[in-house]
Amino acid sequence: MAGKGANSSATVSTCTVTLGKEEGSKKRPAWVSLIRKTKTLENGTLRVFLVAKVVVNGEMIEYYDISGCYILRPWAMSIWEIMQTFFDAEIKKMKIKNCYFPLFVSSGVLQKEKDHIEGFAPEVAWVTKSGESELEMPIAIRPTSETVMYPYFSKWIRGHRDLPLRLNQWCNVVRWEFSNPTPFIRSREFLWQEGHTAFATKEEADTEVLEILELYRRIYEEFLAVPVIKGKKSEHEKFAGGLYTTTVEAFVPNTGRGVQGATSHCLGQNFAKMFEINFENEKGEKCMVWQNSWAYTTRTIGVMVMVHGDDKGLVLPPKVASVQVIVIPVPYKDANTQGIFDACAATVKTLNEAGFRAEADYRDNYSPGWKYSHWEMKGVPLRIEIGPKDLANNQVRAVRRDNSAKSDIQMASLVEGVKEMLDNVQQSLFDAAKQKRDACIQVVNTWEEFAEALGQKKMILAPWCDEEEVEKDVKARTKGEMGAAKSLCTPFDQPELPEGTLCFASGTPAKKWTYWGRSY
Ligand code: 87F
């Protein structure tokens, strides 16, 4: 319904869409190339622009004629699918079942839980017309599915034998953001999984919150090679409709910003009360269920791009790369070209049979050098070059994307050699990212130290009194061009807090160590 030139039969009209710079343009916006010259932007904007450039050149994203909406090309979608395959299998082991609820929400249902929706209302997109006629009642497009699903939870849950009810759906959601859109990081439509579960006891809900959070950690650390910190959101930053929010927090050293990587909420009984989700326990008493909800989105891909990308473009961790090894023939005029091509084909075949995602680039209208930069831009973890010398020596030359290290691998030990190199790339991407992230962590005790560290784009660990008013005050005192600082999370892994430690912001006794910083 959104396509330009398509015969739209419905429009999203209550949102007055402010035209972003790229609105209306089908081509890559001019500013994408302009930014090469813009070296002086300090406030993180440059990095955001660079991400845009890197994902377009790397063929992950294509711009679309609606601001804030992006085309996910196969190069990006395959990463999403690899994470999806992992997560989907894991939640199935936990007896969570997939389902699909409608995209549209009636306004009555959406507004049923007023408190929760209130702050989000400006971001809700509405369908108001079909063809030329106004709809009798505008219909919202889901920004999240609590209000869509919970009336049916109420219907389906009767007795304790109906519990737990554990559902997940893979879908798209729409949030009509107004601040500068960025591919993956801030888009108006994105893909996610949303899990919604109901239990008889709080203990069961608490356990699941952490099990899901651990899966999110694994997606970031084991697949995307991005280190994250597990922790709890402050009262101010938690999902207002819930009891508590846990998070995996990533950090982007180049911009000095934290990113909420994924969240796992315990909703407590707030929604159960609102939607009357009750059950009869073994004793025949009427009880309210305990609920959780949890999600990760395509933002994960954006975080990975920002953390690993370099001057040459994307750098993909082998575990999520749809092409892990690109094989490039390097023929010379007088060399045995057919022999080289055959060796490339044999290499791809051997690697594919061993379970690696390998491809060869045989195009004869591009030089080997052009191909090297092309596949570097796309972030392929390992390049294999086969030239006349390699052919003669029964070997291949392998070049790592992350550090350009080269090594010759004998054809006879191709599989072992490639496996070792890919494992090393995966591990060193994580190690390098962790080292860089850790170097950005600054422990502070006073406001002065805090302000200085914030100026240096650090991720700040500070003793805090855990008062909401103090957090609001920190936000107010750090307001500026680059955005205010806020609490990122209180890590589960707490350093020792010596007796008598004072809050960095209020000077009253501190209760916990909390991470602070600017964030996306
Ligand atoms: C935007 C518009 C309307 C976030 C919104 O985190 C409503 C909302 O409820 C909204 N943006 N949220 C919070 C979403 C909470 C929760 N939903 C299920 C999750 C995990 C998955």
UniProtKB/TrEMBL annotation:
GO cellular component: aminoacyl-tRNA synthetase multienzyme complex; cytoplasm
EC number: 6.1.1.15
GO terms classed as biological process: prolyl-tRNA aminoacylation
InterPro entries from the UniProt entry: aa-tRNA-synt_IIb, aa-tRNA-synth_II, aa-tRNA-synth_II/BPL/LPL, Anticodon-bd, Anticodon-bd_dom_sf, Pro-tRNA-ligase_IIa, Pro-tRNA-ligase_IIa_arc-type, Pro-tRNA_ligase_II_C
NCBIfam families assigned: proS_fam_I
GO molecular function (one): ATP binding
Pfam family, any one: ProRS-C_1
Tagged with keyword ATP-binding: yes
Domain Aminoacyl-transfer RNA synthetases class-II family profile: from-to ranges: 102-317
Enzyme class, spelled out: ligase
Keyword Protease: no
Domain of life: Eukaryota
UniProt keyword annotations, A-Z: Aminoacyl-tRNA synthetase, ATP-binding, Ligase, Nucleotide-binding, Protein biosynthesis
Protein name, per record: proline--tRNA ligase
Catalytic activity: tRNA(Pro) + L-proline + ATP = L-prolyl-tRNA(Pro) + AMP + diphosphate
PANTHER family: BIFUNCTIONAL GLUTAMATE_PROLINE--TRNA LIGASE, PROLYL-TRNA SYNTHETASE
